[in-house]
Amino acid sequence: MFGKLFKKKEKQEIELFAPVDGDVIPLEEVPDPVFAEKMMGDGIAIKPSNGKVVSPVDGDIVQAFPTKHAVGIKADNGAEILIHIGLETVSLDGEGFTIHVKEGDKVKKGDALVDVDLDVVSEKAADTVTPMLITNMSDIEALNKQDVNQVRASEDVVITVK
User: Fold this and answer.
1) Where in the numbering of this chain does the PTS EIIA type-1 domain appear (predicted)?
2) Residues of the chain below pLDDT 50
């Protein structure tokens, strides 16, 4: 009778899909220690082949940076995901980025987040590599990176998280 009331709720496993088309690189190989040393969380990085960045999961936008270079999403299972487009792109102050979401928006996997002019980013920032991190690792039971090399946005699973 009270089994459901006192039973510990099991975390739901979710799949995170690629947020952008491109080549997956291990986070440890990102040429920025903040990402390579996992100071902000664990995940993967993608060297984008185009500038269409989409939601990797269903959830809520919890951060839409005014500089348009990064978006934070809280997945339905509580995982907090940061997509950081390029390295040292905050200094572009939005140049080359068109953001399609704002804080509080609900998104579905594949919804447009940001359009990026990769030529501008390539010319004016350190790199176009785009890390996708789980930032609340202390709340995560398991994170499994898929063994994939080349991915298509919203089609290929890159991480499962519980």
Assistant:
1) 32-136
2) 1
Among 84, 129, 130, 153, which one carries the catalytic annotation? 84
pLDDT at 116: 98
Selection from 8, 84, 1, 76 nearest residue 41 by Cα? 84
Q: Which residues contact 96 (CB under 8 A, 6 or more apart)?
A: 116, 117, 119, 120, 121, 124
Active site residue 69: no
Give residue 106's pLDDT. 98
Token pair of 31 as six digits = 């040429």
CATH assignment of 19-161?
A: 2.70.70.10
DSSP class of residue 18 equals -
Specify the pLDDT at position 1: 47
| Residue spans per domain, the chain | 19-161
